[in-house]
From TrEMBL:
Source organism of this protein record: Oceanitalea stevensii
Protein name: MGMT family protein
Source organism, top-level taxon: Bacteria
Annotated region (Disordered), positions in chain: 79-108
The keyword DNA damage belongs to this UniProt entry's keyword annotation: yes
Methylated-DNA-[protein]-cysteine S-methyltransferase DNA binding domain residues: 8-71
Pfam families attached to this UniProt entry: DNA_binding_1
InterPro entries attached to this UniProt entry: ATL_DNA_repair, MethylDNA_cys_MeTrfase_DNA-bd, MethylDNA_cys_MeTrfase_DNAb, WH-like_DNA-bd_sf
UniProtKB keywords: DNA damage
Amino acid sequence: MAGVTDWSELVLDIADDVPPGRATTYGLVAEAARARTGRGSARSVGAVMSREGSSVAWWRVVRADGSLPEQLTARAAEHYRSEATPRRPGGSVDLTRALWDPVEDPHA
């Protein structure tokens, strides 16, 4: 992946660890990356996912409210159905049932 930094690779590795049918947030990915590197924010995780996230299960990394950017919602819905990801009315991920925390369970 041209232009990917070590930090970006770490973010993608964490995103790739999210189990099928589960989801995590940009903020939790940032927290896990900070625990290893001392840097990172939810916004920077979002930027990495926007640039390089197509190589991982991008639909499993969502906003704190369980949603994705509007342009990704329809594509993500297919993945959520096939993985039986719990969702709320309106289509966002139900994080009370689907949340995976990469800090607590880094190698699920």
